[in-house]
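Researcher: Here's a chain I'd like modeled. Treat it as a single chain, no partners, no ligands.
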Amino acid sequence: MRCLKVPEDRRRIFAFPYPVAIWRDPPRSVELAVGVARDFGATRIYTVGDVVTANFLAAGLVPDAAAVDLKTRRSEYVRTVEAFPRIVSVRNPPGYITEEAWAAVEDAVRTPGTLLLVEGEEDMLSLAFVALAPDDSAVVYGHYRGALIVIPVGRYKEIRGLLKYMEPC
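Model: Modeled as a single isolated chain. Structure tokens:
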């Protein structure tokens, strides 16, 4: 895949909580997210974000793969690294999906137990996971207003269309 970035005038499109938003605190939010994913036939779950991934781990659930940058809006360090047998470092600036990040997500989807340790920002990698994950997957990430977002990939393939609103780097 090629490098893509979100133009400033289109950032609002990507801030919308697609498609299932869970407005509950953990651990209940994680239980509900897993339930939604399973109801849609997901057998694999990919998490994007430090707090989301940490909440899954705290609930005793290790995602098939995850992307974190070891930072949160609250600037806390979230311990996630130890739960994954394979760690891949990748650079990805805010608002981008670099070629390196595309390749790392593709590799993580093929290799369960992979943690992508992102230098920069991991937020847009949720879209890369949706684009590259098999239909029997769900992508879970945190919305900046506090919701947990679940995207059952097979059912919501059209979300991949958001890529057309990005421009080449």
